[in-house]
Design a protein that fits this description.
It is found in: Nucleus. Belongs to the DNA polymerase type-Y family. The protein is of the alpha/beta class. The strands form 5 sheets. A 5-stranded mixed β-sheet has the order 9-10-5-11-12. Helix 32 packs across helix 33. It is globular, with a radius of gyration of 31 Å. The structure holds a DNA duplex (12 and 16 nucleotides).
DNA sequence: ATCCTCCCCTAC
DNA sequence: TAAGGTAGGGGAGGAT
């Protein structure tokens, strides 16, 4: 991506390449495995003689593994498609790409694994990824036995499911647009070609718009509108986007029973009550306003929707179309401003204040202009709402829909709000609404006069407070243009019916790979893995009403904070598997599984100077001070001090391990040897020495013939030095297995990394930071290690580079003077200076 | 008092 | 048949 971006066209604000965004993602995958060194493999068979594959997109097994399998079994692996390529292997390939791939058959990866399992080349036609189920897909000339990955027991399931999941698409597209807005804003240049068009709008006098103005823009029934672009004959009719084509399915006794049994259990699900054993339980992803008039809602089962609206027409999904239209939408808005908070693929907030300030437009002029432009470039209608904050803008959109615009003027807010139904407030969902009903509250007007304490008692302190504010049209949350990820997860609660523990483990492994790929994609690393399970409720029927749905479930989750930074999918799988064992759930009862990663860290150093330095190959000079210290054998290491570390200790009443002593002792031995080697004098920091356990300290003093009188303290250290050394009141156990380090330079480096060095008052920041640490009662050592870890942890532990980066900064006058420093990583590699 | 874990809720 | 994902806010209750 980065490389592509540098090539960008200066005139288009980066858009030319944004169009190629998804393209770029795919080619990156290719780069990844091209870089993988060819591994020498032992030939096992000749199953794939004459077969030459390329891999397109994510697969399971991965491209790398397929490459190895092909080599082992006499096949050929191409990185790019070639005239001699015989098959394309893919788990999910957007329809739009198929036409470009020509006549080479596209097969599922299980063709390869199954062939190997059975020891012979199977007929690939049974493994074709595409069948002629949709007009946009290529027609196939031969009969196809469509082997669909129905349940999670199938290795192709994950990709196939995500390829067809609307919710997955919505979630991932939303996240991608958030990230893209952030990236665009990070570019130094600002270029808004769209604004020129505004000059053509005749300016009027007296169209003062009080600042700030927030615009909320939302496509009207997005999926339907995209689908109707090519189906004009359905305009004005009740239309729904669903997987199913018909609202009735063939009668099936078992299913009728299952439906009835589930109905008994879920009387609150109104739409479920409207269905019977013959109704389709395919969900309506989006429905037209004509369908909504009959009471049809998004998320409803098609069977239920058809009961309300017998004329309803169904149209299939068009995932590529959604991507394309949302891209165009964002592109259009961003040609006017980058003050955008992406909400989802079809919705965003835009701070429009600046545009009004510059162009002297009325809200109506602007709305008419932008809505017309969006209509013309996407072929889809949208609605816009304007207000002084995001809440007002959003409620205005509600009134504007469909295909309209509304400005909620500051003077009208109070009266307007009183009429708003509580259900229309963002954040008020099913559960909250029920609670409020219990209090006899239905409109914002009711809430306006309710007491805060009552609301808080019912909804919790935070939600109570926000609700009261919302009811008055107040929204203090500013738009967030720079979104930072706090978690990455992958979850599937459909098609989970394991027949063996192996199947369950395999699926968990696929999920681990998936979630790892997503983490890597956003260039982050994690330190916490959570596993979420959906388990059939004890009294729920084994057969669910919805085909392969999760039915009525209990959900459980468990997490583990690792004492290392996760740097591969195998670690995720290992942790997830162990969490699964701890939850004691029978694989046969599972109905859903998910893995979530939290405690995320950015993969790259933030400081550009440090970054640049770290990329350099170290010179000989730079390598000298690195001292390797043998790993302590007594205990496992903990890279970042954790209050809970003592809890994780062996419970058998063992004494706390003495790793600290051992490694310190070792450390000084190595230090001495190293000094001899270099014929250099050894410097030992007084404060470090003071903190050593008595016996080691004595040893060090003896070893080095030090002239130190610990009883007579050395000159009073500067104020900030005092806090650098953990005091005796701090529990030593926090730092078991860790070494001391001089903190000031590190903290300065940290602070510098977030603000550019120029014009930063180091002393002031130091004070500020100290206060922060004291206020929050965080150990300075913990902060320092967090920093070190976050910045350098993934760089193959090149601590010497970290050190020299800091020295470098110091020499440039960018850091304060530093004293002796000791850096330690989780493997007890040390560098000292 | 504050943090952490395991939930629940909400939005698209 | 059908494709019930994902991220963030926040609260209860236990641990420290």
């Amino acid at each position: 991506m980065n490389r592509n971006r540098r090539r960008r066209n200066e005139d288009d604000n980066g858009w030319a390449e944004w169009g190629g965004y998804f393209e770029a993602k795919k080619s990156k995958l290719q780069e990844q495995f091209r870089e993988t060194a060819a591994t020498e493999v032992e030939k096992i068979s000749d199953i794939f003689k004459g077969v030459a594959i390329i891999v397109n997109g994510l697969t399971n097994p991965s491209a790398e593994e397929l490459k190895k399998l092909m080599a082992e079994h006499g096949g050929v692996f191409h990185i790019y498609q070639h005239s001699s390529t015989t098959h394309i292997v893919a788990s999910n390939l957007p329809n739009v790409k198929i036409s470009k791939l020509g006549s080479v058959p596209i097969v599922k990866p299980s063709w390869i694994t199954d062939s190997i399992t059975l020891g012979k080349l199977l007929d690939y036609r049974r493994y074709l990824l595409y069948t002629n189920q949709s007009t946009s897909q290529p027609k196939l000339d031969f009969p196809v036995v469509n082997r669909t990955a129905k349940t999670a027991s199938d290795p192709d399931f994950l990709g196939e499911f995500y390829n067809n999941s609307r919710l997955h698409l919505i979630a991932t597209l939303g996240a991608e647009f958030k990230q893209l807005v952030a990236e665009l804003r990070d570019r130094p240049e600002r270029h808004f070609p769209g604004r020129e068009k505004l000059l053509e709008i005749p300016t009027r006098l007296n169209c003062f718009v009080p600042a700030p103005v927030i615009m909320h823009i939302d496509m009207d029934c997005f999926f339907v509108s995209v689908g109707l672009r090519t189906r004009p004959e359905l305009r004005g009719q009740p239309v729904a986007v669903t997987h199913a084509r018909r609202a009735q399915i063939n009668a099936n006794k078992e299913r009728e029973e299952a439906v009835t049994m589930n109905l008994d259990r879920q009387p609150e699900m109104i739409e479920v009550q409207m269905i019977d054993g013959k109704s389709s339980m395919s969900e309506v992803a989006s429905c037209s306003y004509e369908a909504r008039k009959c009471g049809v809602k998004n998320g409803m089962f098609l069977g239920a929707a058809a009961k309300l609206c017998p004329d309803i027409k169904t149209i299939p999904y068009d995932f590529e179309g959604y991507k394309e239209v949302s891209m165009t939408l964002y592109k259009t808005i961003a040609s006017y401003t980058l003050d955008i908070e992406a909400v989802s693929c079809d919705e965003m907030y835009v701070d429009i204040t600046e545009i009004f300030r510059i162009f002297n437009l009325s809200v109506e002029d602007w709305a008419r202009h932008i809505r017309a432009e969006i209509m013309s470039v996407t072929g889809c209608p949208c609605s816009t709402g304007f207000g002084a904050n995001r809440l007002q803008a959003r409620l205005a959109t509600k009134k504007a829909k469909p295909a309209g615009s509304y400005y909620l003027r500051p003077d009208d807010v109070e009266a307007y709000m009183a009429e708003i139904a509580l259900a229309d407030l963002p954040g008020v969902g099913r559960a909250t609404l029920q609670k409020l009903k219990g209090l006899g509250l239905e409109t914002c007007g009711d809430v306006q006069v309710a007491s805060l304490s009552v609301l808080q008692r019912e909804l919790g302190s935070k939600a109570g407070e926000t609700l009261l504010e919302q009811a008055r049209g107040v929204d203090k949350k500013p738009l967030n243009f720079h979104h930072e990820r706090k978690s990455v997860s992958a979850e599937i609660n459909y098609g989970i019916r394991f027949k063996s523990l192996d199947e369950c483990h395999n699926f968990l492994e696929s999920l681990s790979n998936e979630v790892w790929n997503r983490l890597d994609e956003v260039k982050m690393r994690a330190r916490c893995v959570s596993l979420k399970l959906m388990v059939r409720a004890a009294d729920a029927p084994v057969e669910t009403a919805k085909f392969l749905g999760h039915g009525i479930c209990d959900s459980f989750s468990k997490s583990t904070t690792t004492n290392y930074v996760i740097t591969d999918p195998k670690s995720i799988y290992k942790e997830a598997k162990s969490l699964y064992e701890k939850l004691h759930v029978d694989f046969a009862e599972l109905r859903g599984m998910g893995i979530q990663l939290t405690k995320l860290e950015k993969i790259a150093p933030i400081n550009p100077t440090l970054n640049k330095f770290l990329q350099k190959t170290p010179t000989k000079r730079e390598q000298i001070p690195v001292v390797a210290v043998p790993k302590p054998t007594v205990t496992s290491s903990k890279p970042i001090p954790k209050e809970k570390s003592t809890r994780g200790r062996p419970k058998g009443g063992k004494k706390a391990p003495t790793s600290s002593k051992n490694s310190l002792s070792n450390f000084f031995k190595s230090k001495k040897e190293n000094a001899k080697l270099q014929h250099k004098q050894v410097e030992i920091d007084f404060e470090v020495l003071k903190e050593l356990p008595q016996d080691i300290r004595d040893e060090v003093i003896r070893e080095y013939n030090l002239d130190v009188d610990l009883a007579k303290p050395k000159p009073q250290p500067a104020a900030e030095d005092k806090i650098l050394v953990p005091t005796e009141t701090k529990k030593r156990s926090h730092f078991e297995g860790l070494q001391w380090c001089q903190l000031r330079p590190i903290l300065y480096a940290w602070m510098k990394s977030e603000k550019e060095p120029a014009n930063v008052d180091v002393e002031m920041l130091g004070e500020h930071f100290k206060q922060l640490a004291l206020d929050r009662q965080i150990d300075m050592l913990k902060i320092a290690f967090n920093f070190l870890h976050r910045t350098f942890g993934q760089l193959d532990c090149r601590w010497h580079r970290a050190y020299h980066a800091i020295v470098d900064l110091t020499q440039q006058g960018m850091l304060a003077r530093y004293g002796s420093m000791l850096f330690v990583n989780k493997d007890f590699d040390c560098c000292f200076c």
